[in-house]
């Protein structure tokens, strides 16, 4: 073989290690890019020439080439940001985002969960691509229902639906040492079907030893009725309630809003054992309200968001309620190494990656999600600096091959002198 082959082998090394430095440089440049996955170079030798030499065959290599650049899908570390819309994936999976300008053709996949709400209340990435998820609704029985198809996550117009009060109970001590005629009052807010609050006041009056009467009154214009509107409470010598011995109902009608009458239950006994709850007592100490419990609430406006490990986005409302709103869609691929890089920490499906498998966090092999956190770049600077040194030395050695072969060829030329 001629020395010219050695020249081209040196050129191939220069080209290969020059491109390898591009990969190292890209990795180092993205050391602070959220969700970035580092890449590595796969070198391969070029098919050798075979030269027959009697009974043996000589093989001479023709240099090197880059056989591929593979992404490293190693888990990146996490940063807690405190931003409710930031999300980090631990384990397998990608978030799904869509370019609103391209419709179904603009679907991309990313590990970068740096999301925000746009002016329309939609969850988007820094490129204003819509994050995809499944809408969650609550049935009348309280069961959460997930939509069958994913769509743009939209938080606009979300509010907490009011819940009418169905039961209430007090934790009250009525002073056993109080004189006849002594009174004690306590109040609570009951809510009708439209979330309108009605303040109900119970006034207890002592009539005899261990005996108190009660009267319930409501806001002006309303009418109260039912066994829980008025009656008598009696206690035994241990200060425990003996009557009423059953739950009593209270109905409020005449709401200013025009809402239907509200009927609720004064919870006095255990529904299973029918024994008294003993929330009402009569001990020889000052009359006091220890607790007031009722299960209704008014409508509420959205005040904050939170995301759990299953990717469920919940709304925190002004009425103190928490409501599940959306669940993030995740996808995975049989060969994520076949994904096409699209820039901005996004990837696109290719024939080499296979079709996306959809799911949700924490199920079917998908990873979990950390809210108010971000997955950082998985670039290892120490490894990249070692690769950089190796590539630099290999590049220098390849260039040295060219200069050395040039000197050898010059010696051949000098033979004719």
- End-to-end span in angstroms? 24 Å
Number of domains: 3
Quick one: biggest sheet? Answer: 13 strands, antiparallel
Number of alpha- plus pi-helical segments: 2
| Low-pLDDT sequence parts | none
Query: What do the pLDDT scores average to?
Result: 92
Share in helix: 10-25%
Whole-number radius of gyration? 38 Å
Tally of DSSP β-strands: 34
What is the quaternary state of this protein? single chain
Structural class estimated from helices and strands: mainly beta
Strand content: 35-45%
Based on Cα principal axes, name the global outline.
Answer: rod-shaped
Plain-language structure description:
The chain contains two helices and 34 strands. The chain is mainly beta and 417 residues long. The longest helix is centred in the C-terminal third of the chain and has 34 residues, at 381-414. The radius of gyration is 38 Å and the shape is rod-shaped. The mean pLDDT is 92.
Brief synopsis:
This protein has 2 helices and 34 strands.
Fold topology:
Elements: H1 4-29, E1 39-45, E2 49-53, E3 56-60, E4 64-71, E5 78-80, E6 87-90, E7 94-98, E8 107-110, E9 116-117, E10 123-124, E11 130-138, E12 144-146, E13 151-152, E14 159-160, E15 167-173, E16 183-191, E17 197-208, E18 211-217, E19 223-225, E20 230-235, E21 241-243, E22 248-253, E23 262-266, E24 280-281, E25 288-294, E26 300-307, E27 312-317, E28 322-328, E29 330-332, E30 340-343, E31 346-348, E32 357-359, E33 368-371, E34 373-375, H2 381-414
Parallel strand pairs: 15-23, 15-24
Antiparallel strand pairs: 1-4, 2-3, 5-34, 6-33, 7-8, 7-11, 7-29, 8-31, 9-10, 11-12, 11-13, 11-28, 14-26, 15-25, 16-17, 17-18, 18-20, 19-22, 20-21, 22-23, 26-27, 27-28, 29-32, 30-31
Helix pairs in contact: 1-2
């Amino acid at each position: 073989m001629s020395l010219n082959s050695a020249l081209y082998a040196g050129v191939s090394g220069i080209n290969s290690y020059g491109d390898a430095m591009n990969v190292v440089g890209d990795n180092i440049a993205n050391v602070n890019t959220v969700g970035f996955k580092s890449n590595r170079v796969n070198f391969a030798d070029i098919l050798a020439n075979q030269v027959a030499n009697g009974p043996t065959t000589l093989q001479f290599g023709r240099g090197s080439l880059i056989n591929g650049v593979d992404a490293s899908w190693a888990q990146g570390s996490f940063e807690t940001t405190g931003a409710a819309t930031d999300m980090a994936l631990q384990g397998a999976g990608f978030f799904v985002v869509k370019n609103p300008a391209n419709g179904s053709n603009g679907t991309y996949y990313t590990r970068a969960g740096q999301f925000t709400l746009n002016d329309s209340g939609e969850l988007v990435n820094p490129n204003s691509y819509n994050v995809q998820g499944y809408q969650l609704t609550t049935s009348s029985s309280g069961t959460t229902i997930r939509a069958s198809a994913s769509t743009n996550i939209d938080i606009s117009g979300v509010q907490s639906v009011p819940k009418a009060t169905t039961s209430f109970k007090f934790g009250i001590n009525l002073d056993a040492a109080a004189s006849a005629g002594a009174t004690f009052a306590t109040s609570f807010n009951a809510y009708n079907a439209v979330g309108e609050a009605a303040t109900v006041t119970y006034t207890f009056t002592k009539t005899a030893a261990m005996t108190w009467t009660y009267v319930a009154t409501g806001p002006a214009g309303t009418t109260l009725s039912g066994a829980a509107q008025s009656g008598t409470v009696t206690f035994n010598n241990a200060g425990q309630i003996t009557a009423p011995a059953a739950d009593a109902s209270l109905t409020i009608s005449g709401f200013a809003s025009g809402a239907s009458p509200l009927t609720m239950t004064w919870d006095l006994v255990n529904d299973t054992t029918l024994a008294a709850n003993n929330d009402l007592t009569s001990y020889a100490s000052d009359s006091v309200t220890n607790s007031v419990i009722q299960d209704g609430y008014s409508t509420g406006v959205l005040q904050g968001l939170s995301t759990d490990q299953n990717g469920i986005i919940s709304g925190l409302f002004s009425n103190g309620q928490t409501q599940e709103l959306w669940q993030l869609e995740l996808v995975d691929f049989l060969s994520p190494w076949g994904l096409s890089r699209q820039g901005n920490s996004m990837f696109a499906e290719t024939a080499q990656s296979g079709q996306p498998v959809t799911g949700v966090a924490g199920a079917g092999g998908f990873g979990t999600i950390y809210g108010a956190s971000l997955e950082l770049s998985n670039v290892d600077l120490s490894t990249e600096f070692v690769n950089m040194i190796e590539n630099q030395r290999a590049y220098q050695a390849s260039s040295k091959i060219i200069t050395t072969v040039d000197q050898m060829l010059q010696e051949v030329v000098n033979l004719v002198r």
